[in-house]
Amino acid sequence: QVRLVESGGGLVQAGGSLRLSCVVSGDTFGKFAMAWIRQAPGLEREFVATITWEGARTVYGDSVKGRFTISRDNAKNTVYLEMNSLKPDDTAVYYCAADRFYAGSVIKEYSYWGRGTQVTVSS
User: Fold this and answer.
1) 64 — phi, psi (to 5°)?
2) Which residues pair with 81 in a beta bridge?
3) CA nearest to 32, candidates 79, 69, 70
4) How far apart are CA 42 and CA 90, in angstroms?
5) Contacts with 32 (C-beta within 8 Å, 6 or more apart), sequence order
C-alpha cells in the first residue's frame, strides 16, 4: 500500500520561508512522478509543482514560479517543496501527490495522495 506523509507546515510571516517534505512508502519511490497541490479554504485545489521520476524536469503553477522549488531525493524516498517569499495568499493545506504514469498539472491525474500539511502565512 502506497503511503504519502507530509511534514514541515506551520505559521510564518509574509516574506518568510518554509520547506515541506513528503515521504513515500509502500513502493519504489523512483517509480512515481511527484507533485504538490494546495487548497485554500473555500477554494478549488490548485496545482503548485511537479517533478518527474528522475527529477530532470519540473513544472510550476504560475502563482508560485520564481518563489517555490520542488526537488526530490530518491535515496530518501522524499520530495521537497522549498517555499520562499511567502505571501498570505499562499495560506492553504498543501498536499503531496504521486502517480506512476503522469507528471503534469492536471490534478485529477494523480493517483496517490497524502493527508496534507497546513501552511499559514500572516501579513
Assistant:
1) -120, -5
2) 20, 70
3) 79
4) 14
5) 24, 53, 98, 99, 100, 112
Cα separation of 60 and 36, whole Å? Answer: 9
Which residues, at least 6 apart from 37, have a Cβ–Cβ distance to it below 8 Å? 45, 46, 47, 48, 94, 95, 97, 107, 110
CA distance 39 to 37: 7
**C-alpha to C-alpha distances, 68 to 24, 26, 53, 64, nearest whole angstrom:** 21, 27, 19, 6
Per-residue pLDDT of the chain (123 residues; tens, 9 = 90+): 999 999 999 999 999 999 999 999 999 999 999 999 999 999 999 999 999 999 889 999 999 999 999 999 999 999 999 999 999 999 999 999 999 999 999 999 999 999 999 999 999
